[in-house]
Amino acid sequence: MAYGLLKGKRGIISGALDANSIAWKAALKAHEEGARFVLTNAPIAMRMGAIKELAETCEAEIIPADATEVGDLEKLFTQSQEVLGGKIDFVLHSIGMSTNIRKGREYGDLNYEWFLKSIDVSALSLHKMLQTAEKLDAIAEYGSVVALSYIAAQRSFPDYTDMAQAKAMLESIARSYGYRYGKAKKVRVNTISQSPTKTTAGTGISGFDAFYEYADKMSPLGNASADACAEYIVTLFSDFTRSVTMQNLFHDGGFSGVGISQEIADLMIPKE
């Protein structure tokens, strides 16, 4: 059921790779709620995905942009305003990549050049987006920027390696720039710490299935789905959350608040 939460809103949604990605589902939900937006991703990622299919469904234009390149971001924000006919009301930052994880490098054997690339793509790109948007005055007052994070920013998880540092920096940038942008233009900046989700990126992490099953057993509501996350994202884009900013918002079925669940405790007790 649609409620018209984003009727008249203009946005930019990054990171939609395929139908399993949270950004893809967020685009569908934003379209359903009445928003108009452009889709963007790095050219190399676009060649791997099916973003044209999503664009047709959502009646959206695609503007390729490498989020680590300020020149690309300047074109993205400028062209998006031209296409949509005004300032941007919402931005979704759904961007993350670790070559160390892709190539199976352990935390004690990281390639540091790849590590810096992880930080640039997964975290610093948010700062570049926000700084570029501010300089161009591209986001409307009470606009909303949302970036996707994970609880590994606060806790240690095996095999998440350098992405844990990237997510921690992502959340820090959201707080620091959230203060600045809020004072300057009343623009909101938040991160969502989502449950482990069966996306293309998520399932590429070694041990993901164990992450997923453990979180599901720990969470009183079970793991939050990608579809549910898309719904949550839309509420943060809407006018109903105008006073929410600089927050890392856990959307994880309660996982972040549980010490140990009964299901996990039962698994620790030897069966007679």
Descriptive terms for the model:
alpha/beta; globular; 46% helix; 272 residues; Rossmann fold; single chain; seven-stranded parallel β-sheet
Question: Can you characterise this structure?
Answer:
The protein is globular, with a radius of gyration of 18 Å. The chain is an alpha/beta fold and about 270 residues long. The longest helix is centred in the middle third of the chain and has 25 residues, at about 110-135. The protein has one domain (about 10-270): 3-Layer(aba) Sandwich (Rossmann fold). The protein has 10 helices and 7 strands. One of its GO terms (molecular function) is enoyl-[acyl-carrier-protein] reductase (NADH) activity. One of its GO terms (biological process) is fatty acid biosynthetic process. This is Enoyl-[acyl-carrier-protein] reductase [NADH]. Its EC number is 1.3.1.9.
What does the secondary structure layout of this molecule look like, with pairings?
Layout: E1 10-14, H1 22-32, E2 36-40, H2 43-48, H3 51-58, E3 61-62, H4 70-84, E4 88-93, H5 99-102, H6 112-136, E5 139-149, H7 161-185, E6 188-194, H8 208-218, H9 226-237, E7 248-251, H10 262-268
Parallel strand pairs: 1-2, 1-4, 2-3, 4-5, 5-6, 6-7
Helix pairs in contact: 1-3, 1-9, 4-6, 6-7
Question: Can you summarize the main beta sheet?
Answer: 7 strands, parallel
Which class in CATH terms? Alpha Beta
The CATH architecture assignment turns out to be 3-Layer(aba) Sandwich
Helix percentage range? 40-55%
> Helix- and strand-based class?
alpha/beta
In order across it, which strands form the biggest sheet? Answer: 3-2-1-4-5-6-7
- For the record, give the distance between the C-alpha atoms at the N and C termini, rounded to a whole number: 50 Å
Question: Number of DSSP helices?
Answer: 10
The name CATH uses for the topology is: Rossmann fold
- Outline: globular
The number of distinct structural domains comes to: 1
Low-confidence stretches: none
N-to-C SSE string, H for helix and E for strand: EHEHHEHEHHEHEHHEH
Fourth CATH level, the homologous superfamily: NAD(P)-binding Rossmann-like Domain
Number of strands: 7
> Any idea what the radius of gyration is?
18 Å
**Mean pLDDT across residues:** 94
Our estimate of the beta-strand percent is 5-15%
